[in-house]
Amino acid sequence: MDFQNSFDHFVFDLDGVIYSGEKAIGNSPEVLETLRKNKKGIRFITNNPSRSPSDYAKKLRRLGIRSHDSEFVTSPMATASMIREKLSSEKWKTVFIAGSDYLKNEVRETGLVEVSGNDSLGADLVVIGSHPGFNLEEIKTASIAIGNGADFIGTNADFFYPCEHGRAPATGALLASVEAASGKKAVTSGKPEKYMFDILEKSGVAPTKKTLLVGDSLRTDIAGGEKAGYSTALVMTGVTKKTDLKGNVIKPDFILKNVFFLLKPL
User: Which of 154, 174, 175, 247 is most buried as measured by Cβ atoms within 10 A of its Cβ?
Assistant: First the structure.
């Protein structure tokens, strides 16, 4: 397989694919620069809800990777898209948001009114995305609001993400605590759901086998890419281990040691 001559667009997950923490993985700066020089379309798609496209672009530049804000699709963008889709059928007016300032801005732009304090307990909707300041009070407020009848959206269902020191808890782990306390399961908007891929298509990425999604998670990246109609490549630099592959119903088209192997014919 000659990846460069076989695909028109490359869609990359970030954590565990392009970088781990503050370190680039698998010569990713060289890989991306080579693809750009060969006129390939590049996009980045991430379930991590804590940063904006501008933040991600700055991080990649620190790692020596050229990028533009418009190349990123995030789970907060997907969450806002889901909310807009459902607003016509739901009676949502107010929302309690446990998440980053970026997530809050994306949700407020849908027209919902963010509430706080005691007003949060009567919110129509609860939205949760992982952020560094997540705390017990947010779990309590979200759980009570959901128990009082609020609907419940999570930005993504990932239980953890890879960092320099191992596995760090992600939004799915936080959702689990609120689900346990409230007795209600969250609906999620990030990969593998359709919303991020719809945004990609609107940006010019065709939902065909000529688009290659490169990710480290079978459950989110590869499953989402398959649903979208993409070809998929799993890299073994993130959350998936060899033992996860045996018997798994989710099958990537390609399995690579790291992204550098995109430059090497198989």
Answer: 154
